[in-house]
Amino acid sequence: MKDSHHDVALTFRRMFFGFAAATCLAISVELVLLEHVKGWEQRIPFALSILIWVAAALGLRPRSAVSIHGVRVLAIVVLIGVLFGTYQHFTGNFEFVTEIYPELTRTEALLKAMKGASPLLAPGALALASFLCLAATHRHPLIAE
To answer: Taking burial as the number of CB atoms within 10 A of a residue's CB, which of 21, 71, 135, 139 is the most buried?
Structure first.
């Protein structure tokens, strides 16, 4: 019975890492199509996608507990990048709204900025990839928790 549980867990780990890598591939293609490459800030999602690909590769062929901890560190770094991306999208929207509609109250401008041209949840796809990597390392057999 323990072997079948281990096989199922291994299958799910592989699926999670595969989904994370595929998500980042799709994000990268979409960003290229949207020409999201102006300035260093717009290149950050590409770097974060590479980090997820490295994390997935480490997770798919873990050599030791250090590999699994490395996956977790990379996923957390990506989550920090996601927060930065969300902030960048929101502040860009807010500055645009307040410039175009100076008569709006602060609350109205905040609400309008949340619906702006730069989608606030776009960086969330990278967060999903990070959470998939973190989920794949949960109770990993190489880590005695």
So the answer is: 71
Q: What is the pLDDT of residues 83-92, one digit of tens each?
A: 999 999 999 9
Residue 13: which domain range? 2-137
Query: Is the distance from CB of 55 to CB of 70 less than 8 angstroms?
Result: yes
CA-angle at 33, arms to 32 and 39, nearest 5°: 45
Q: 144 in a domain, yes or no?
A: no
Identify the band that residue 3 occupies on the pLDDT scale cut at 50, 70 and 90. low
**Cβ-count burial 71-110 (b if 16+ within 10 Å, e if not):** bbebbebbbebbeebbeebbeebbebbeeeeeeeeeeebe
- DSSP, res 117: S
* pLDDT above 80 for 73: yes
